[in-house]
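Render this sequence as a predicted structure.
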Amino acid sequence: MKKQQLLITAIGFILIIVLFFFVKTAPPSTTKKAVEPVANNTTIQFSDILAEAKKKITIQQNDRLAGLENAVTRGNVKEDKIHVYHQLARFWGDSAGMFIPYIYYTAEAAKLENSEKSLTFAAQQMVNRLLVVSDATMQNWLASNAKVLLDKAIEINPNNDSSKISLGACYMFGNISNNPMQGILTVREIAQKNPNNLYAHLVLGLGGKKSNQYDKAAEHFLAIIKQQPKNIDAILNAAECYELMHNKTEAIKWYTVAKKLITNNADAIKEIDTRINELK
């Protein structure tokens, strides 16, 4: 499986959960309004995130964490710091089960390693989360931190389209600029150059949904379905776009296709049935 196919598979799994258990579809306004790009001036510091995270772990875990944090302070050799950052990442990811501290330390290690592989690995996890969170402050934090990593990765390999698409997603979904078109144009150019780039279509499709351009969004999701007929994420997104356009026939068609592909999630099937019945 190609790298960009793996990307949309990983993102899609999260999107399915978000779509059916946290998002309630609302019909589009009958009056079309221009989408104004708004920069998010509200920022959050990792120190604040870390302080809240520490409140949720045990005394024993806090003691273990303090030892690792002291090791970072004492470490003078780059390799030593990289090793401790990886330990901190494993602590937060495996022992504490908290994503943001985990990805922060993964990113810190990647910056020191400064390899395309480590930089893109950390950045992509941030972008995957960026595409599904709704909190504007967290979107901004994820996009800002992912951008730092992606800028470094693209400097190493300017020809990596996946990195460019992820960077475009940061501009489109992270409120890091007053000009999100800066990201859209890059992703669109890649999609036009390579119509088979599924990751580009996914990001453009989600961007179209965000800006209420449901017809354009549906085109991108259908482009994914054409190559991957069983891509449930693309199918559900296409169905929702048609629902938002009040095209009940197409919406029911794609919800029905999705239902046939979902065999082990009773809650998702129930939600799809509800939506189909509401559309009839």
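Summary. Residues 214 and 241 are 5 Å apart (CA to CA). The two ends are 38 Å apart (CA to CA).
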